[in-house]
Amino acid sequence: MPKKLKIIVLCGGESPEYEVSLASGKTCIKNFDEKYLILPVVILKNGLWLFGEKYFNFKEKKHIEKWFESIESLTKQKSDSQIINKALPIYDAIHRIQTDSPALIFIVLHGNRGEDGTIQGLFEFLRIPYTGSGVLASSLGMDKHRFQKLLDYHKIKIPPHVIVFEYESEIESFIKEAEEKIGYPFFVKPSRCGSSVGMAIAKNRVELARAIEDARKFDREVLIEEYIKGIEVTCGVLNLVGKNGEDEIVVFQPTEIIPKEAEFFDYTSKYTPGKSDEITPARLPKDKINEIQKLAERVHRLAGASGFSRVDIILRDDIPFVLEINTIPGMTSLSLLPQGAKASGYDFSSLLDEIVKYTLKFRRENL
After folding, report:
1. Per the CATH hierarchy, to which homologous superfamily does domain 161-226 belong?
2. If exposure means fewest CB atoms within 10 Å of the residue's CB, which of 5, 53, 273, 336 is most exposed?
């Protein structure tokens, strides 16, 4: 009987997307095939690393659920000394990982210090294989402003925008510039944050000033974009190992997103069941779906993304505008990448399988 591969699933983190990351980690662990042994590792909000009690096998799903419940309880109370005392500082955590010698680290961290190239750089330095994009693509994908500069250079349509730089304390000049260059309404968002955290629509100057200040609670750099109203879609891209061992790309069926109550696909709409309709494949003509898929693949390649990504697009008058790329998209039961994968013939387990196989071949080769 072949030896089972040991995989560490790394989730949590210090960003505002901590809870989403926990949900992603738990969902992935419960869907891994029986040929793997999985060790959950949670980076707590205080930066300490908490390791699971052991490597779980396929038959221990209830035990996994119980373990995650104990971690999730930490967010509802000030502390749990019994759990906290088991957590390790990063230096000890690295030593533990090196001692364990897992086949790879499956990263489902979202936001800063997880999706922005930081943790990827750590594992590169330690020569430990990890899933997803490398340092540069991760950093670029997390930084919406500089990512849009790349797309603009390659003549890919993006929303007209003004950037409020972090070194500027006065925002009046940026408000005036946005009013003159674009005009209301605006879509305001932190430049380096995900899951729609800190985002808002501003329809007048008072709302704009408030939205900028709110966004700055999550990132000192803020994007003021034209609010483009249209059909919102998202499209997943997956790298996989081809039949002859080559690097292949599969583009999933795009998903159409329709928030039921909110004006846009905000945090509540994304993570609350029943708050949005997500239709896969999108209700668009075949030629438009093909156009979106080609655009998503092009963006994936231009950003240097690898493993998998999800590209968010909005269509106005049939013209696609690229909003952003997610290099570690959500992997919860409600998440859009697994939905697109399923509609394209990959259930959750086989999606994880393809990510693991690609990582073992191409990430390990390049370390």
Report:
1. ATP-grasp fold, A domain (3.30.1490.20)
2. 273
Q: Who contacts 56 (Cβ-Cβ below 8 Å, separation ≥6)?
A: 29, 37, 38, 39, 40, 63, 64
User: Would you say 327 and 160 are in contact if contact means Cβ atoms under 8 Å apart?
Assistant: no
Q: Mind listing the pLDDT tens digit for each residue in 298-346?
A: 999 999 999 999 999 999 999 999 999 999 999 987 889 999 999 999 9
Does the bond joining 102 to the residue before it have cis omega, within 30 degrees of 0?
no
**Nearest 5°: CA angle at 4, between 3 and 10?**
145
Q: Of the CATH numbers 3.40.640.10, 3.30.470.20, 3.40.50.261, 3.30.420.10, which one belongs to the domain with range 141-155+229-365? A: 3.30.470.20
Q: Tokens standing for 321?
A: 């505008």
Q: φ and ψ at 157, to 5 degrees?
A: -65, 130
The residue among 37, 28, 31 whose CA lies nearest residue 6 is 37
Measured CA to CA, the distance from residue 255 to residue 257 in angstroms comes to: 6
Give, as one character, the DSSP assignment of residue 56. Answer: B
Residue 169 sits at φ, ψ, to 5 deg, of -90, -35
Residue 307 to residue 238: CA distance in whole angstroms: 6
Let me know the angle formed at the C-alpha of 94 by 89 and 96, rounded to the nearest 5 degrees.
95
Burial class (CB in 10 A: 0-12, 13-18, 19+), 283: exposed
Give tens-digit pLDDT for 127-166.
999 999 999 999 999 998 899 999 999 999 999 998 887 6
Rg, Å, the chain Cα set: 20
As a whole number of angstroms, the distance between CA 147 and CA 144 comes to 5
Neighbours of 125 (CB within 10 A): 11
In CATH, 5-130 is 3.40.50.20: yes
